[in-house]
Design a protein that fits this description.
3 domains, D-Maltodextrin-Binding Protein, domain 2, alpha/beta, 16 helices
Amino acid sequence: MKKLFIYLALSLIVMGCSKTEPLHIGSKDFTEQHILAEIIAQLLEYEKIPVKRSIPYGDTFSNLKAIKNGELDLYVEYNGTGLIMLGQPPISNGDKAFNEVKKLFKPLGLEWMDRLGFSNDYVLLMRRDRAFSLKITKISDLVNIQPNIKMAMEPEFLERPLDGLAALLRRYGLNHVVSSVVDNNKAVIYQALLDGKVDVTEGFATEGRIEDFGLAVLEDDLAFFPVYEPSPLVRKDTLERYPKLRSVLQQLKGLIDTTSMRQMNREVELEGQDYQVVAQEFLIKHKLIEKQLQSVKSEKFVLAAGLINELGGSISQAVRAIRKTFPGRRVKVLQTADPLQTLIDGKARLG
């Protein structure tokens, strides 16, 4: 009887040890990362791979440290960022940058999967009216702003060694920049720009707010910023633990173009949709999953505006006021020759 008890106990221990640990997915703390991590998480779950989510986990430094020490199994990283984090010079050619990070990260036990299809480059942004009045179209034109250039940015942009603020200022010879607003919340950064508290902000090319607020994207005329193409970054032992993981992730190769990513970001940031719902709809659209959880989209608030109105002026102020009053409501700007008639016809709620 005693031997039987020992045998049963050992069997339970072996069964417990053989149970595969969930694959731990992390992300950085901005909308695009939330969406991409959730797309991967839902796809893996559909393919019967158990997942643990940390969305978000932290900034670039935190995610990279965690995946190196085994706290994370996977997160989405950008080839340009990968090079910078290992102290390598920036590369503007996507293929060269991808091949280089694959080679450099291999000794760390980390593998770059295929690229997802778009490049989310850093950009510098201004209000269109302000840029026009100062005749600024490219980054080198910022010298026209006197006495100081007031700038808004995320803390990570201040800390990045080779593609952050300090390196940018050295490349362009800008010695009169003041970091007036530093915040992890993108909404705070854009609000500061739209309210005129700062002259310039850093952003990402795929952010939906750029088009929505009619912002001017300054040309990187000295080609300072490297290419930033995202890929799932995975631990080698995780690929060994889940033999089908590689083939599952390959389904996402080249599937997300810049327009699609910008639209998904917009749906979350500006239309109030849940990033989990947006990720799910993307997977269903591309026939990667079949089951759709029941979800209800918020009612759209349509704002009628004249054709001559600038998106970066009074319209953007109205949009921000609507979103503040009705949080979570999707807002659509309908520019028309006769806003009043649009209201009368019931095609818009406000004009």
